[in-house]
Structure formats: structure tokens, C-alpha cells
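Regression test case RT-17, inverse folding.

Input:
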């Protein structure tokens, strides 16, 4: 019998367990290329002031922030780095990494501030703050799908930039974008702003006249084991793709079979006897006019 399908993003601990598996299963993904791309983008960013303010939204454990912080620390006399991440246990890892780096003599010119809450809560709490619109950089890397109302969030974030400031977002495309749209049919509301095409449409509707510059990276995800019931890790990966807790166990047989057929026939390709899914990503760079 089908049970209630629980949205994964409402349960931070469960989300983290599944997201960790998702990261481990990435294949043929040039991680060094991603980090190098981030470092280059932020190293080349022109900030007229000697100091800058950064809002990092949903950075998880901070791993993807390292090249960004490195780049800013090497060029700015002072950086205020405000981190907003709802998964408190992952935020602790970020804090520990910062403490370790600073003990080693790195990132001494960066002042960190950590908030274990959703971006919606942070925006609401700081809407009357004096310096709320003084950010030089705001980045949202692979986290837009967690926003309750992506359009409103991005409008608010854009408005909080100083003139010339950068709104930087990384979002998925390829087969992953396709399967996440299907996931929203399976569990409505599981993804509210998914993929490059959706995000571009939302941004252009909510922020007419903006210019969106993009960079593109290729990636693939090994999903072969998702089709094997006995594989615990890949059941967790499947949960992440559908953004639903225990999808195999709780979905009706009809819903489950329909999703798996769609995934295999529409979103996978075979290589060396393995099933993979394209999960390319794009960076959106939007400068405030």
C-alpha cells in the first residue's frame, strides 16, 4: 500500500545523508575544473573597494566555498563572509574548517558569520538591517531548489546587492534537469525552481532587463545501482533524485514503476555496461545594474 511521500528538503538530517551519497556517485565530473572555474571567476571579479561583503546561501559544509574564499582573501584587504545554511550539522563542519584554516594562518583577512537557518528566515529577520543592501557578492550554488518561493528569494537577493555587485548561481541541466521535473510530478512541490531553463525563465520574469552570463561544465552521474532493490546507497541516491524519503518503499507500485521507466528510458545512457545520467551544470552570473 502506498504511504505518504515526505518531501526530503523538510528533513535536514535525511537530506544530508542522501546528498552525501549523491556527491560520492558523481562520475566523470571534473571537480578540479569546477573549483578552478570558481577561483577564476572570483579572482577576476572587479571590486572597487578594498573590503567586500559576501552572502553565501546554502553552501552545505563549505567545500565549494574554498576557492571563492581563497580568491577573495588574496585580493581584498578585508572580507565579511556571511553564511546561511539550514543544515546545522553541516554548518558546524564549515565552522570547523574555517577554524582549522585560520589556525594555519589562512583566511586571516576574512570575518565569518554563521546562521543555521533557511534563506527565507534570514531575509525576513534582516529586512530592516542598515547594511542589508550592501553585499558585493551573493552566491547560491546548487541550492535554488530548496527555496520556498524562488522568484521572491532571487528578487530579494538581487535587491541586496550594491550597484555592480554579483549574484552568482550554479544550477543543473542535462538529464538531471529532466528527471527533477518528473520528480515534481511524482511529489508535487519537491522542486520549485529546477534546472537552467526554469531558473532563467523565473529570473527574466522577476528581474526584467537583467543580463545573464553563463559558463558550462559537463558531468555524469552513475545511477546503475538505483535499479537494484538491495542497494542501500543507491536507494538513498534515488531518494535524492525524487526529493522524497524512502521513495522505493513508500510510493505506490504504479508511481514507482512509471518513474523508474521514465528515468531509464528518458534520462540515462549506457557506457561500458553501466547506466549513467548527464548532470551538466551552468553558472549564472548576474551583475546589478
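Golden output:
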Amino acid at each position: 500500500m502506498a504511504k505518504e511521500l515526505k518531501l526530503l528538503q523538510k528533513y535536514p538530517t535525511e537530506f544530508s545523508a542522501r546528498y552525501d551519497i549523491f556527491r560520492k556517485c558523481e562520475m566523470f565530473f571534473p571537480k578540479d575544473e569546477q573549483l578552478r572555474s570558481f577561483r577564476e571567476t572570483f579572482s577576476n571579479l572587479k571590486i572597487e573597494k578594498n573590503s567586500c561583503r559576501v552572502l553565501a546561501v546554502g553552501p552545505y559544509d563549505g567545500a565549494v566555498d574554498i576557492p571563492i574564499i581563497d580568491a577573495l582573501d588574496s585580493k581584498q584587504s578585508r572580507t565579511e563572509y556571511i553564511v546561511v545554511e539550514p543544515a546545522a550539522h553541516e554548518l558546524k563542519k564549515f565552522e570547523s574548517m574555517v577554524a582549522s584554516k585560520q589556525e594555519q594562518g589562512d583566511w586571516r583577512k576574512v570575518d565569518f558569520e554563521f546562521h543555521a537557518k533557511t534563506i527565507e528566515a534570514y531575509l525576513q529577520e534582516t529586512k530592516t538591517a542598515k547594511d542589508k543592501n550592501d553585499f558585493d557578492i551573493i552566491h547560491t550554488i546548487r541550492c535554488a531548489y530548496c527555496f520556498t518561493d524562488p522568484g521572491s528569494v532571487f528578487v530579494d537577493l538581487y535587491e541586496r546587492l550594491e550597484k555592480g555587485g554579483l549574484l552568482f548561481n550554479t544550477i543543473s541541466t542535462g538529464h538531471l534537469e529532466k528527471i527533477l521535473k518528473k520528480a515534481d510530478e511524482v511529489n508535487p512541490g519537491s522542486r520549485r525552481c529546477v534546472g537552467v531553463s526554469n531558473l532563467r525563465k523565473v529570473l527574466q520574469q522577476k528581474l526584467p532587463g537583467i543580463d545573464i552570463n553563463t559558463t558550462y561544465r559537463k558531468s555524469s552521474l552513475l545511477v546503475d545501482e538505483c535499479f537494484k532493490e538491495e542497494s542501500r546507497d543507491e536507494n538513498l541516491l534515488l531518494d535524492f533524485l525524487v526529493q522524497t524519503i524512502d521513495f522505493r518503499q513508500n510510493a505506490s507500485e504504479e508511481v514507482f514503476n512509471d518513474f523508474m521507466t521514465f528515468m531509464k528510458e528518458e534520462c540515462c545512457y549506457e557506457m561500458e555496461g553501466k547506466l549513467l545520467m548527464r548532470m551538466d551544470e551552468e553558472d549564472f552570473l548576474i551583475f546589478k545594474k
